Amino acid sequence: MTDQITKKKRREAGAKRAIPTKDLPDPRFNNEVVFNARPTAPIVPTRRLAGQSLTLLIAIMSFIASLTFGAVSLIDESARTWQSQISREATIQIRPEENFDADQALAQAREIALSFEGVRDAQVISLDGTVELLEPWLGTGLDVDELPIPRLVIVTIDETSPPNFQAMREAVSEAVPNASLDDHRAWIARLVSMARTMTVIGISVLVLVLAALALTVVFATRGAMATNHDVIEVLHFVGARSGYIASQFQRRFMVIGLRGGLIGGVLAIVLFLATSWWAARNLATVEGEQLAILFGNFAIGPVAYAGIAVMVLIVGLLTALTTRFTVLSSLRDIDERRSDPSYEP
Amino acid sequence: MCFGACWAVQDDRSDRTMITFENVGLRYGLEEEILRDLTFQIPAQSFQFLTGPSGAGKTSLLRMLFMSLRPTRGSISVFGNDIARLPHDQLPLLRRKIGVVFQDFRLLEHLTIYENVGLPLRVRGRDEESYRTDVIELLKWVGLGNRLNALPPVLSGGEKQRVAIARALIDKPDILLADEPTGNVDPPMAQRLLRLFSELNKLGTAVVIATHDLGLMDQINARRMILANGHMDIYD
Known about the structure:
- The structure holds two protein chains of two kinds.
- Chain A has helices spanning 2-17, 51-87, 102-114, 127-138, 165-175, 185-226, 229-237, 242-281, 286-295, 302-335; strands spanning 89-94, 119-124, 151-157, 179-182.
- By secondary structure, chain A is of the alpha+beta class.
- Chain A has a four-stranded antiparallel beta sheet with strand order 2-3-1-4.
- The two termini of chain A are 52 Å apart.
- In chain B, the strands form two sheets. A six-stranded mixed beta sheet of chain B has the order 6-7-8-3-9-10, sandwiched between helices.
- In chain B, strand 7, helix 6 (187-202) and strand 8 (206-210) form a beta-alpha-beta unit.
- In chain B, helix 3 (113-122) packs parallel to helix 5 (157-169).
- Mean pLDDT of chain B is 84; it is low at 1-15.
- Chains A and B meet through helix 1, helix 7, helix 8 and helix 10 of A and helix 2, helix 3, helix 4 and helix 6 of B.
C-alpha cells in the first residue's frame, strides 16, 4: 500500500517535471531539427577578454621583474664571491728601511706565518711581481732601487678555520719590526656592508617591481572583467553558484597570466644567457676582464632560474586570484544592489 | 552535523505560498517611493498578470521578486526564507527554482541558442548529453528547431524572446517570472506562448506575467495585480 502511494507520488512528480511541449503541436513551424553538434563553447567569451593586450602587459611586467630578480641574484652572488676571495687571503707588508735585508725579513715573516694553524700557504711576492703590481699606477720602466717600495707576503688562509690573526700579528711584529699584518677584515667589513646595501636596494626594487606587477595584473584583470559584467549577471540569474562563475573566469585568466609570465620570464632568461655568452666571448678584452672581475661571467645561478620560474607561477596565480576576487565582489554587488544608495539596512 | 553558523534554504511550500511581500517600499535615490506598502503573496500554482501603466514599477517589482533588487523597506520572503537574512551563497539555490524572462532577453551572444537554453542546466553541473534532447525538444516547440546553431545577434526580437522563454523554462521552475514575454512576438505566437505558460501552471508552476497587453490578459481568467501610483490593487 505504502509502495503504491510512493509510486503515485513519483508519477505526479514526474508529470510536474515534464515540459508540456508534446501536447502543443504547432503546424505553423518547420520543426525539422537542424543541429550541428559542436563542442560546447566556453561560458566566458574568449574574444572579449582583451587577452592579447593583457598577455603583452603581463609579459612586459614579468620581464622587468625577472630582470630585477636576476640582477639582484647576480649582485648578491658577486658580493659573496668578492667577500670570499678577500677573506681567503691576508697580507704581511714589510716596509723598506735603509740597510735592511728585505729578503731575509720576507723569508722570516713567511716562516712565521706558515707556522700558524689555519694557514694553507704563504708566498713572497718577488721584486718583479711587486713591480708588476705597481705598473698600472707608476707605469713601466720603474727603477725599484730608487723608490722605497714595501714588499709583500701573501698568506693563503683556510676559510673554514682561520688562524689567530692577533697572535700572528704579534709574532710577525716581534720578529720583524718593520712588518705589519693586514688581515683584510676592514675591507671585508666594508664589502659586506656594501654587498648588503646593494642586496637590500635590489630587493627593494624587486618588491616595488613585483608590487607594480601585481597592481598591473589587478587593474588589467579588473578592466577585462568589466567587459564581462553582463555574462556574470546572466550566469548569476540562471542560478550558477558564485564559486562556479568565479572558476569559469579564473581558469581563463590564469592561462593568460601564465602565458604572459612565461613569455616575460623566458625573455629575461634568454637575455641573461645572451649576456653571459657575450661576456665569455669578450673575456679577452680589457673591458671584459674588468667586468668579469666584478660580475664573473654574468651567469645567473640555478636559484635565480628557479626564482624566475616561481615568479611566472606567482603571476599566473595572482591573475587567477584577482579574477576570483573581482568576480566574487561583482556578484556581492549584484546581490546587495539597492535602488536607494543612501539606504542602510 | 553543523558547526558554527548553519543555514539551510528552506523549501517551505506547506503553506502554499511561494513569495510573500510585507509592507515593501522602494525608491530610487532620494526620490519619492515608486512602490509603497506592497503586501501580497504569490501562492503556489497560481497564475497572475502584473500590469499597470508604463513607469508604474512593474520591472522593479519583478526584480525584487527575483532577488536582483533589494527593497528600501519591508520584508520579502521567498520559499519561506527571509531574503534579508539569507546568506549570499544560498541565493543561487533559490534562484534555481525561479525562471525569469527578462524584457531585454539577456542572452549570451557568443553562445548558440541551443547553448543559451541549456545554460541553466550546464551551470548546475549537468552533462550536455543528459539535457540535449530536452533542449532540442523545447526549442523545436517554440519554433526554433531549425536554428539551434544560430547566434543571438542574427535573431529577430521575437526569436530572441522565444529563446529567453525556453531558457527560463528548461529546468521546470517552481515559479516563472516573465517581463513582457509577448512584447516582441506576433499575436498567434503570443497566444501559443500563453498556452505554454497556462499548461505549465496546470502542472504546478506559479506564473507571474508582467504585461500591459490587455488583449493577452483577456485570454485567461487569472488574478490581476495592478500597479498604479505606487500602490497595488489585486483582483482575484
